[in-house]
Amino acid sequence: MARYFIGDIHGCNRTLQTLLEHLQPGASDLVVFLGDFIDRGPDSKGAVDTARALLATGAQVVCLRGNHEQMLLEVLKNPALGALWYRNGGEATLKSFGAASACDIPADYLDFFQSTPLWFETEGYLCVHGGLNFYLPDPLSDTASLMTIRHWYDDINYAWLGNRIIVHGHTPVPLSDIKKQAQHLAQRQYLNLDGGCVYALRYSGAGLGHLVAFEADSHTLYAQPFVG
C-alpha cells in the first residue's frame, strides 16, 4: 500500500490528471489531498470532478478542506463576503461551473465541500491544509489555523507532536525548498507540498509552477509541472 499526499491544486485539473496518471493509485493505496482544489486556475470544477472520480473507484481518498473551500462556504452563509472571494480566485471557480454566484453551484458540489475534514492522521503523519497553532494545548482545536496559519515552524511543540510529520500546503514555495524539507524530515518533522502550480505563468522565474505529491513510506517526491 502506497500513501500519497498531494498539495494545492487550485483548478489546475490537467496537471492533476497528469500527476495521477503517473502515480496510478490503486484501491489499496491512500491518497490525501491537502485542500484548495478550487480558485485561480482554469478548471476548478474539473479538479473536484477528478478527485471525486478517484474516490468513486474505491481508492482510499481523503479530501481536506483548504481556506479557499472555506471561503466559498462562508459566502453561502454571508453573500456580502462574495467580493472578497471573487478577488481571491472565486471568479475562476464560478466560470468553471457556469455559475453567476456561489449559490448557483450544484448542491452536490457544495455538499462535498461541506463534508471535507480539516485534518487527517495516518501512521507517522498529520495532514492539514495550512498548519497548527502551537500556542494552544491542543493545536487541532484551532480550526481556523488549520486552514489559514502561516509561519508556524518555529513554534512547533515537539512533545505534543511526538514522532509525527506534519504535511501541509497553503503557502506556495519553490520546488527546491520542498526538496530541502524532504531531506530533513527526521529532524524538522514538517513538509510543505504547495509547489505553487497555479503560479507557473505569473511567477515563471520563482521556482513555482509544480503540483507536488509525496509518498509517505518511500519518501519519494513527485513534481508535475503545470500543464493546465
What would your notes on this structure say?
The protein has 228 residues and is of the alpha/beta class. It has a single domain, classed as 4-Layer Sandwich (Purple Acid Phosphatase, chain A, domain 2). Helices cover 36% and strands 17% of the residues. The chain is built from nine helices and nine strands. The strands form two sheets. The chain has a five-stranded mixed β-sheet with strand order 3-2-1-8-9, sandwiched between helices. A four-stranded mixed β-sheet has the order 4-5-6-7. A hairpin with a 4-residue loop joins β8 and β9. The chain is globular, with a radius of gyration of 17 Å. The mean pLDDT is 97.
Topology:
Elements: E1 3-6, H1 13-23, E2 30-33, H2 44-56, E3 60-63, H3 67-77, H4 82-97, H5 107-115, E4 119-122, E5 125-128, H6 143-148, H7 158-161, E6 165-168, H8 175-183, H9 185-188, E7 190-192, E8 210-215, E9 220-225
Parallel strand pairs: 1-2, 2-3, 5-6, 6-7
Antiparallel strand pairs: 1-8, 4-5, 8-9
Helix pairs in contact: 1-2, 3-4
